[in-house]
Design goal:
Layout (H helix, E strand, L loop, with lengths): L13 E4 L1 H10 L5 H8 L3 H8 L5 H11 L3 H5 L7 H4 E4 L1 H6 L1
Antiparallel strand pairs: 1-2
Helix pairs in contact: 2-3
Length: about 100
């Protein structure tokens, strides 16, 4: 079986957006709606909705960090860091179900 045929197990780890930090960072920068956030990051509002639901891809991750990185000094004043490690986390399905 090749990678394209591989089926993700329901208990497989996944990457999730840390929504609370994403919202805090974008709100501090003046982007208070998901439409404004999508425009800022250069994605569609649907992509923001999907990220909130736990469906993200590497382009969303890269665009999010790239859009926020130029504002790192301002965000640091609030102890926020626009990095992959701070904006995203690896979770297991069992952890998701327990939450």
């Amino acid at each position: 079986m090749n990678d394209m045929q591989d089926v993700t197990r329901p208990d497989a780890p996944a990457i999730r957006l840390r929504v609370d930090l994403f919202d805090a960072m974008t709100t501090l920068l003046g982007y208070r709606s998901d439409v404004a956030r999508a425009e800022f990051i250069d994605v569609t509002p649907r992509t923001i909705n999907r990220a909130r639901a736990g469906i993200i891809g590497e382009q969303f991750m890269a665009k999010t960090v790239a859009a926020l990185a130029p504002h790192a000094d301002r965000l640091a004043e609030y102890n926020l860091r626009p990095t992959l490690n701070d904006l995203f986390e690896v979770v297991s399905a069992s952890a998701d179900q327990a939450a």
